[in-house]
């Protein structure tokens, strides 16, 4: 038909010219005779000048020849295709007896041939698992792959899908195959297979077993022998595929080789992104890859509520009671929420799968694929990097030797909580190095436990008081006294010089000559963003704050996003920042997920964080809270309602950012109570608001035992205005209301 179309395009101008000449000749003839006879049709040529009839005859002849030629060509083409199709069907019918005589082969993973222009493209890997499995007939290596007809699909011998990837150096012969189910994901073809002849597809007919849509999947080569009785039974899913070559090669993983949405990291940011992606794209297939052995979970309870649980099996259940008495798990969702990674490619309605215990060691940005530590490669359409961070350690501890390292905990994961819980029940002394959020929380938690057992808890740090880098000095000193009351021995202004293991004890030598003996060390000295993939991926790392540099949409590349602790983003109010808190992980992960589905939203949210020193003292903070900045504190007398326990009873959750981010501040109403004249009575900091200033503008706020007021603080920072009297601003938080 293409030849007919080309011929017609060539003859069409000549035909139109001939027709135009005929009409002009007829018109001139009518004018010469005085009038055009009414009974003579316009196409009559008898009165035309000499030569007009010959051109008209040529036009008719050409049109007729074109039609006849096209009909002949179409007839011969259809007849030839039918004959070739029948020949191939006859050839296929003779194969089953031959395949059963072949030698058994070791299964191997295959890559189906790339679709050619003459065949339909393979279907998306979301075929309904309830549909009957696709049935194929295997072919030998010398012949192109051919699909089975519906009649042959009913034969038991053809119930297995066999795949092969023949190496280029081996002769063309039947290759070992692996049995796979019909709903397994499609794998890209190798260059050798892509060069094979195209697949010939039969005319679709109404079969009873496989549907026509299922018969569009690529055909694999080489069929291993199988008994008819075994072929009639449902095939067991093949979870691993082993390739056979000259050398033994490791087994490849069972997951699909491609996923539309790939999330690297199994923390809060990844889970928030997965939920956001599924909310905007209900049929999305999301794969989370994490080096931990558990599904995504929340980290704050590891240093807070879990330590106050009365359940002796808390390390196994990982369930805890919040300050309000309600029980919950640290896991965001139960295992039933997720689908198996092996079934992700065939899930009809998509889903979220978690691949645990696997680390991404290489990232090919140009090829849109990653490599795992077991050499498995997974390609993606869009990727999120949410690798979080790794705990820092002191160099003096790293250089102290293996014995000291064995008795040192870098607290970060579930395994660290379980390990430290066990240690705290079997040793006499634990020393926590670090006076920040994590160190102070663990000190209070272990100090509370020390009152029930003969455990000595020591906390040392280089600052003058607890959280000295965050809180103003007067509030830091007050907090230090509060920690001491929890049973913790405080050693301030302590710089570690060396650590040695001696007489079954760890001796910590300080630079001022003090010596501390302990059984175990917990290093809580900060977090280092995990940017191991930056080198292989060619992504930019911020030299000042660390982490992957991203734009306002949290993009590092056109199809790569970064969220959570590993993201260094630009804050339109406070400049470039990197935040290491739960609320930021939730909000940035959610936004990254939305942008991965096409939202293109900028990151403007001011994330908050909170810390609880037991059930009676807690605070929430937002913005830049640095004790080196000038501060203004406005305090009031606390009541029984001004505790973390009371706050969780009101909000219903101990993870306060979950409820806090659902509200926005519009027009806060100031309290009518009289404003204070400054910091209230000395050493009375029951509740209050601390403003952090830069160039007379509020850039950070701490709400001390003041809860559920964070939207107001966020609005104050967002406005970026100078305030003549911060006492009046403090009224917005109603801290003087009983």
* Category by helix and strand content: alpha/beta
Quaternary state of the chains: single chain
Which stretches of 5+ consecutive residues score pLDDT under 50? Answer: 36-49, 96-253, 658-682
Number of strands: 30
- The percent of residues in helical segments reads 25-40%
Evaluate the radius of gyration. Answer: 38 Å
What is the overall number of helices? Answer: 19
What's the rounded overall pLDDT mean?
Answer: 75
Shape: elongated
Strand content: 15-25%
- Quote the distance from N terminus to C terminus: 89 Å
Biggest β-sheet description: 8 strands, mixed
Describe this structure in words.
- With 738 residues, this protein is of the alpha/beta class.
- Helices cover 27% and strands 19% of the residues.
- The protein has 19 helices and 30 strands.
- Strands 3, 4, 7, 8, 9, 10, 22 and 23 form an eight-stranded mixed β-sheet that branches.
- Helix 1 runs antiparallel to helix 2 (52-93) and helix 7 (268-280) packs parallel to helix 15 (582-596).
- The chain is elongated and about 120 Å long.
- The N and C termini lie far apart (89 Å).
